[in-house]
Write a structure and sequence with these properties.
Layout lengths: L2 E6 L7 H15 L3 E6 L13 H5 L13 H7 L5 E7 L7 H14 L7 E8 L4 H13 L13 E3 L3 H4 L3 H26 L14
Parallel strand pairs: 1-2, 1-3, 3-4, 4-5
Helix pairs in contact: 1-7, 3-4
Length: 208
């Protein structure tokens, strides 16, 4: 069964970011797609220290014995995940510190395994800064050969509280359309594989 991992990078477990991700999740489930909303929590999330341990072991050096921040858990499950939706509140026109540190380490350790998976960013804000945070999150996908899924507007929802976010009818509709587009692409890719399509052989990476 296809699976979508939705990452909630807000320190508030059931706030505005969750409201947006939950709207996406509901539509995906109606399409018969397995989902999981992973809340990063309120504990500090270690940033990448470029030690390159992950290049040798496939896991981040910061494991459960040092930080319970779930990066290695996702790395272990990465082969069963078909799409990643990264959700974050907007802080000073940027994504939250938690999700930034989390994605830095996840993509540094598992970037070569991301190719072909779908990626989508979702941001929540009271008023401004959404576009730059949205752009920041999408860059993780575009550096790793991941098709980025869009909606009928930029994937953002507005409000200071969950109750206010629930009143953003346009934002909620944007999330539902995003989910429909994710489902359509996942189904299309699955049918293409059944028809014998294989991903193209990639060139040896050039660094300059």
């Amino acid at each position: 069964m296809a699976k979508v991992l939705l990452i909630n990078g807000s320190p508030n477990e059931h706030g505005c970011t969750y409201t947006a991700l939950h709207e996406v999740e509901g539509v995906l489930r109606r399409h018969g797609i397995e989902t999981e909303i992973l809340w990063l929590g309120r504990k500090p999330v270690a940033g990448c220290i470029a030690c390159n341990t992950c290049a040798r072991t496939g896991h981040c050096v910061f494991g459960p014995e040092t930080f319970d921040d779930k990066v290695n858990r996702v790395l272990d499950e990465l082969d069963s995940i078909d799409a990643i939706v990264a959700g974050s509140p907007v802080y000073y026109a940027a994504a939250s510190g938690q999700i930034t540190s989390f994605l830095n380490r996840l993509f540094y350790a598992g970037g070569r395994r991301m190719a072909g998976k779908l990626g989508a960013a979702v941001v929540s804000c009271r008023r401004g800064g959404a576009a730059s945070a949205f752009d920041q999150l999408n860059k993780y996908f575009t550096i790793c050969n991941m098709p980025v899924v869009s909606s009928q507007y930029w994937n953002q929802i507005h409000g200071s509280t969950r109750e206010e976010a629930m009143q953003d009818a346009e934002g909620l509709q944007t999330m539902r359309v995003l989910a429909d587009n994710i489902a359509t692409l996942m189904i299309s890719f699955s049918e293409a594989e059944k028809a014998g399509f294989r991903s193209p052989k990639r060139e040896l990476r050039i660094f300059t």
